[in-house]
Every structure is written in C-alpha cells, then in structure tokens.
Amino acid sequence: MVFSCIDIGGTNTVIGVGNDEFSIVEKTDSDTFLQDIRSSLEDILADTGHGLDEMKSIAFAAAGPIDRERGTFHPPNLPVDTVQLRAPFKDTGADIHILNDCNSAVLGEYVYGEDSAEDLVYLTISTGIGAGIMVDGSLVEGSKGNFGEVGHIAVDTKGHRCGCGGTDHWEAYCSGANLPDMAEHLFGYSFSDARELFDAFYAGDARAEKVVAEMQTYNARGIANLVNIFDPDVIAMGGGVALNHHSIIVDGLQDRIREESVNGVPEIRLCSLREKAVIHGLRSICNGHDPR
Ligand SMILES: [Zn+2]
Which of 18, 54, 68, 148 lies 20 to 30 Å from 231 when distance is taken between CA atoms? Predict the structure, then answer.
C-alpha cells in the first residue's frame, strides 16, 4: 500500500509519495492543481507508476483555513473560494487526512527533525506568520483544525491594518508580504518588497536598519507571547523570511525575549527540516504516527 502527501501552499503544491521509502515527486502550481485535484493527483501518480486505487492514505496540508468536518479548504490567495479535499476521493477507500500546514510542519519536525522536543513550537515567518504547536508530545489542532493563527495576535496599538480586517496584528507588521507596508506606514519609507528591504539592510542603509529594528521588536513581542502561553522547550523557525535571513530574524532573539517573558527562554533555532517540514508531517500521519 502506498500513500500520497500533498502540501498545498499559497503559490506551489508539493506532492510526495511513499510506502517503505518516501520521496517528493512533484512540485506544481497550486492554482492549477486545485482546479481538479483528483485528475491532478492521478496524473502525477501515473508518472510514478502508481494509481489512486493503491492509496492507503491521502494527506493534505493547506496554507489557509480548513474545515476538517466538511473536508474543505478555503484558499486565501487563489481565485477559488472553497475546495473539496475529501469528496473527490470518497470512492477510493483511502483514509483522507487534512491538516493546517503549520500543524503538519510541527509534526514533521517532531517526528523526523533533529533534537526534537515534547513541547515544540514551529513558527513560520513567510508571506504570513503562523505556528504549529506540540504540547507534551500532542499536536494541538483546535475545533476545525486551524489552531495556531498567531500572526493575528496584536503586538502594538498604532492602528496598522491587517489583511484579515483586524488592526495591529503581528503579521501586518512583520510578514514578508507586509514589511514594506509597515516601513511605509510607520516611517514613510518606500521599499518595493521585503527582498529590497533586506538587501538595503545588508548594504548598511540607515532607513532599512530602522525598519528591521522595529521588526525585531515586534517579533520578540510576538514570540514572547508564545513563550508565556506555551512554555516550549524549542521554537523551530521556518518560512522564507526566517530561513533566508537567519542572522536578522533568529540571532539575538533569546536576549530580547528574556526581557519580555515570564517563562524561561527556550532554544530558538531554524527548523531542521527547513521547507520540507510540512510534507514530512503528512508522511508521519500516513505512517500511523498520529499524536492527536
Ligand atoms: Zn490579522
């Protein structure tokens, strides 16, 4: 019996197939993949010599709101409103698992990562900000499976709007997509995107240094909230912003958090599985490791 793991990101979808061995076989455009997920998956599996009828499990991780009961996903950045993940595969007899992507990532890091911990926070800083959390070795998922939308906790009172409609949310200040808005709103500086901001910072630009310092303050505030609530052993950081700018995002965090946290300061490091944590979380579920 074989299983399929499907990590549906905001831009790309990554597919893994496994039995005794596990391999990532395909990376495709999410918009195209979601238009007809059954045909998309059948085509990809055909290239590996497998068919849907062989699948023991099909596991999805979604970058956006899911409803496990209904088996649906609501992609935030794609033209489609609701995608049925379970219904198209009902007749296959496969077990269908649907997870939030950060929840899957923390599970991947917990099961297959290096130096794992029973109390583990996976924090992604990328287009958005989110977390997956293991408490005492159990994955916390919430009522519909959307636990860990930590990007929408408030970190200031300046009235900066978040894409979700709220104000002063961490993500509105510090996500990769929103850093230029924060620079504009708080300082009147114009950067076309986060990459330009970070390049300017590395080149010693004083404006970029101010914006990055503000970002580091907000990140410390947000992470201190997580430390105060969850008292983790380890915070493993992922997402493009953290993975590509380790020295700016991770270095020095522990000292900053010490000032803001009542609880002891955890180990803070990059996620050892890097961007593959999500799909390995799905792999662990398909392999029968289900700590829920
Ligand atoms: Zn928000």
Answer: 68
State in Å: Cα 168 to ligand 1 middle.
8
Give distance in angstroms: CA of 69 to centre of ligand 1.
24
pLDDT digits over 187-239, tens only? Answer: 999 999 999 999 999 999 999 999 999 999 999 999 999 999 999 999 999 99
Query: Is there a single domain that holds both residue 281 and residue 228?
Result: no
Place of tokens 């379970």: 86
Question: For residue range 11-43, what is the model confidence (pLDDT) as tens digits?
Answer: 899 999 998 789 999 899 999 999 999 999 999
Distance 180 CA to ligand 1 centre (A): 16
How far, in Å, from the CA of 173 to the mean position of ligand 1?
10
83 and 134 co-located in one domain: no
Proportion of the chain above pLDDT 90, given as a percent: 90
129 CA → ligand 1 middle, Å: 10
Q: What is the DSSP string of 78-116?
A: SS-S-EESSGGGGGG--EEEEEEHHHHHHHHHHHHSSS-
pLDDT at 273 over 80: yes
CA nearest neighbour of 99 among 136, 57, 36, 141: 141
- Residue 63 alpha carbon to ligand 1 centre in Å: 15
How far does residue 158's CA lie from ligand 1's centre (Å)? 14
Whether residue 31 is contained in a domain is answered as yes
CA of 164 to the centre of ligand 1 (A): 4
Ligand 1 centroid to Cα of residue 76, in Å, is 13
Domain span at 67: 2-104+276-286
31-58 b/e with 16+ CB inside 10 Å = b? bebbeebeebbeebbeeeebebebbebb
CA of 177 to the centre of ligand 1 (A): 13
